Amino acid sequence: FDLRNEDLKDLQELGQGNGGSVKKVEHIPSKMIMAKKIVLIDAKPSVRKQILRELHIMHDCHSPYIISFFGAFLSDPNICICMEFMDKGSLDGIYKRIGAIDIDVVGKVALAVLEGLTYLYDVHRIIHRGMDHVPLCAFTLTLDSSDIKPSNILFNSQGQIKICDFGVSGELINSIADTFVGTSTYMSPERIQGAQYTVKSDVWSLGISLIELALGRFPFSESDPDDSDLSDLEGTLSPNSIAIRPKEKDKNVKKDRRKSKGVSLQGGGMMMSILELLQHIVNEPAPRLTPEGRFPKEAEDFVDSCLFKDPDARKTPKDLLKHPWVEQARVSTFDLEAWASTF
Ligand code: ATP
Ligand code: MG
C-alpha cells in the first residue's frame, strides 16, 4: 500500500490515549477497514523521517499475535500509523463493559502475549525502545505508552488476541509531543528504580495486566489514598486518571522536562497517589491472584512467577511459554470466537 491521508475516510473515533487518538477508517481505493493512530510529535523533519524508517520494520512483523501494519505517513504535525482494525477493541474496554474476564480467556491472553513478545524478540530483536528518564523525588521515572497493558491487547470477533503499540521506534518514543502523559502503572520495580529496560519488564507488565483482567479491576487501586504527598508535584485530576509532572520551579527537573512526559495513574474506584503507588510497587509484595482458591493453582503460580520483584528471578516470555498454565491454554478447547459473540 501507498497510504495517503486523502484516501482515508474517518468512520468512527475508537479511543484516545495519552500519545494521540485512534480512528476507524476506510481506505477508499481498497475498501479496506483500518485503525489509524494519530500521534502528535514534537520533532524536526529529519527526525520525523527517521521515525518513518524505524516504523518500516513493522512491515516485516507477521505473527498471529501481533497487529498487522499497513503503513505510516506524516501529516503535519502528526504521524499516522495505519494498522489492522480489531472490532472488539482492547481488553480494558471489554472488562469495563462485561466485568471480570473468565480465567480461561485470561489464559489465552497470557499465551498470545507471550507468543507475541517471543516473536518480536526472537525474530526482530525488538525489546521496547530506549529510555526516558526524569529524576523525580526519590525515583527515576521512565515512561512510555508502549507497555504491555490491557489497552494494548486487542481482540476481534474471530477470537484472535493481538498486541499493539510495542515500541519499534525509539525516535518516535522520544518525540511524542510534550503534552504526552504516559500511564506508568504497569511499570516493573526495576524500571521505577531506573534500571535498563529488558524483556523481563514486559513479563511484569503482563502479570499486572492478567490480574486486572481476572479481577475486573486494576490491582493497585484499593489502597487508602489519604496520606498522599503530592506537594512537590503539580497535578491534574480527571475521572479515572491523575496526571502529574514536576513543578516548573524545580530547575533540575525542568531541564529534563522535555524528555519527561509526566506520569499518570489509572484505576477504577479509589486512587493512590503516584508516589504511594511507585513506592508500593518497589517496597511491598507484588499483587497476586486472590482470594486464594478462586482461580486455578496453575494460574496463581503463573502470575506469581511474572511478578517476581527481582528481574533475575523472573523468567523470559520464551521460558514462560512452557509453564503448565500456558500449555493448558494452548490445548484448551475454550471457544474464543463463541465467547466474542456474547458481547
Ligand atoms: P496510552 O496512550 O496510555 O497507551 P491507550 O493504549 O488507551 O493508552 P491508544 O493507543 O491511543 O491509547 O488507543 C486508544 C484506544 O483505541 C485503545 O484503548 C483501543 O480501545 C483503541 N484501539 C487502538 N488500536 C486499535 C485497533 N487496531 N483496533 C481497534 N481499536 C483500537
Ligand atoms: Mg495503546
Explain briefly what this protein structure is.
It comes from Scleroderma citrinum Foug A. By secondary structure, the protein is of the alpha+beta class. Helix content is 33%, strand content 21%.
Keywords:
343 residues; alpha+beta; 5-stranded antiparallel β-sheet; 4-stranded mixed β-sheet; 13 helices; globular; binds adenosine-5'-triphosphate; binds magnesium ion
Report on the structure:
This protein is 33% helix and 21% strand. The chain has 343 residues and is α+β, with helices and mostly antiparallel strands. A hairpin with a 2-residue loop joins strand 4 and strand 5. The longest helix is centred in the first third of the chain and has 22 residues. The chain binds adenosine-5'-triphosphate and magnesium ion. The site of adenosine-5'-triphosphate (ATP) has 26 residues, from strand 1, strand 2, strand 5 and strand 10.
Instruction: Give me the count of strands.
Output: 13
Strand content: 15-25%
Oligomer description: single chain
Order of helices and strands: EEEHEEHHEEEEHEHHEEHHEHHHHH
Could you outline the blueprint of secondary structure elements for this entry?
Elements: E1 8-16, E2 20-27, E3 32-40, H1 45-55, E4 69-75, E5 78-84, H2 91-98, H3 103-124, E6 133-136, E7 139-142, E8 153-155, E9 161-163, H4 170-175, E10 182-183, H5 189-192, H6 199-215, E11 233-238, E12 241-246, H7 251-255, H8 257-260, E13 263-266, H9 274-283, H10 297-306, H11 317-320, H12 324-331, H13 336-340
Parallel strand pairs: 10-13
Antiparallel strand pairs: 1-2, 2-3, 3-5, 4-5, 6-7, 8-9, 11-12, 12-13
This protein binds adenosine-5'-triphosphate and magnesium ion.
